């Protein structure tokens, strides 16, 4: 086949008219100088605490997310840096209204918060949503899908949405929600909405973090006797019956009247304020303005009678004791002798060779004796 472009098998067949063109010598797609691209994850540089604090206070939403990630981190090396960051942010927080929103699963919390938050953003407010998702008791993971649910609000330049896992914390909130609120206030957000997990009447910890506590309810969630049970009902500053639209509107109005009858027998959650029930349709935006009017009236009244300041001060004390408990728990389980001794105690308790109370006594004797020997 030398000197020709005819296939070898066609040399003796003069009637064969086809020929071929030699191919281009290359590595890929005809490009001789092709070089395979390598995609590498760009690692974040170690930002100093001062720079991070400045960027948060300038309103940088990406840096605010990084700050909250640092605050929520369980890594020991991040704890001190997070405390330094909070120390820098605390003097620069802006006055805000903290609103806690809870309710049973399916009450439409995400839809309500999106419509409520969007209306406030349109009024010129800066709204931060701290949404807590339940963590799996099996895998420990969380879906964290609140930005997907609140797509319209997430796109608004005045809004910031931060989903966080509950990580087993009781009360429907993250153990670092208080610190996250401080970071958001330092970033200039004047309305902070804390959305709880939504597990029922046990979600009371959020009451110690917010100024106004709103319970989102739906029709057919229980009778009057169920509603009068002690717990979350007596902590609410307002109850909003959602999904008051279409054929459900009349039933929602009936549920509102029933809640108002129940609330008549309960002690008010806040001094100088009468808790009432309202209706709204988050899907169509009906009743959202009335809810905001109720909150602004609440803030005005509680500031005038001193209840607002009293609540903020009591919340700081609650925060103090919560951090003491957390520090003691970490100190106990990170103690070298406890870490060595605990597996034997666990094994003994499992085999029922020692009672649980005696096991606890033995562990604390080990823990306390290490300080006495110093």
From TrEMBL:
<dbReference type="GO" id="GO:0005525">
    <property type="term" value="F:GTP binding"/>
</dbReference>
<dbReference type="InterPro" id="IPR005129">
    <property type="entry name" value="GTPase_ArgK"/>
</dbReference>
<dbReference type="GO" id="GO:0003924">
    <property type="term" value="F:GTPase activity"/>
</dbReference>
<comment type="similarity">
    <text>Belongs to the SIMIBI class G3E GTPase family. ArgK/MeaB subfamily.</text>
</comment>
<protein>
    <submittedName>
        <fullName>Methylmalonyl Co-A mutase-associated GTPase MeaB</fullName>
    </submittedName>
</protein>
<dbReference type="InterPro" id="IPR027417">
    <property type="entry name" value="P-loop_NTPase"/>
</dbReference>
<dbReference type="GO" id="GO:0005737">
    <property type="term" value="C:cytoplasm"/>
</dbReference>
<dbReference type="Pfam" id="PF03308">
    <property type="entry name" value="MeaB"/>
</dbReference>
């Amino acid at each position: 086949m030398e000197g020709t472009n005819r296939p070898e098998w066609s040399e003796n067949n003069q009637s064969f008219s086809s020929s071929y063109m030699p191919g281009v010598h290359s590595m890929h797609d005809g490009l001789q100088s092709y070089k395979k691209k390598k995609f590498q994850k760009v690692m974040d540089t170690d930002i100093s605490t001062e720079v991070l604090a400045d960027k948060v206070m300038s309103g940088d939403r990406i840096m605010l997310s990084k700050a909250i990630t640092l605050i929520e981190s369980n890594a020991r090396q991040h704890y001190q840096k997070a405390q330094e960051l909070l120390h820098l942010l605390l003097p620069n927080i802006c006055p805000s209204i903290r609103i806690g929103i809870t309710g049973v699963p399916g009450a439409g919390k995400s839809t309500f918060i999106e419509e409520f938050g969007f209306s406030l953003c349109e009024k010129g407010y800066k709204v931060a949503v701290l949404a807590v998702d339940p963590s799996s008791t099996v895998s420990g993971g969380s879906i964290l899908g609140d930005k997907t649910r609140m797509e319209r609000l997430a796109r608004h330049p005045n809004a910031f949405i931060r989903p966080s896992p509950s990580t087993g914390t009781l009360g429907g909130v993250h153990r670092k929600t208080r610190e996250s609120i401080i970071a958001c206030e330092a970033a200039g957000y004047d309305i902070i909405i804390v959305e709880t997990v939504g597990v029922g009447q046990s979600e009371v910890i959020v009451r110690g973090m917010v100024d106004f506590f709103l319970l989102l309810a739906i029709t057919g969630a229980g009778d009057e006797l169920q509603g009068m049970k002690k717990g979350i009902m007596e902590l609410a500053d307002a109850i909003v019956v959602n999904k008051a639209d279409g054929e459900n509107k009349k039933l929602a109005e009936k549920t509102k009247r029933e809640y108002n009858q129940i609330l008549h027998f309960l002690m008010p959650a806040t001094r100088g304020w009468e808790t009432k029930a309202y209706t709204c349709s988050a899907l169509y935006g009906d009743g959202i303005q009335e809810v905001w009017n109720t909150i602004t009236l609440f803030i005005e009244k509680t500031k005038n009678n001193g209840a607002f300041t009293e609540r903020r001060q009591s919340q700081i004390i609650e925060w103090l004791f919560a951090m003491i408990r957390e520090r003691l728990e970490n100190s106990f389980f990170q103690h070298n002798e406890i870490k060595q001794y605990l597996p034997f105690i666990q094994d003994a308790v499992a085999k029922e060779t020692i009672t649980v109370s005696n096991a606890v006594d033995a562990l604390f004797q080990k823990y306390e004796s290490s300080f006495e020997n110093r």
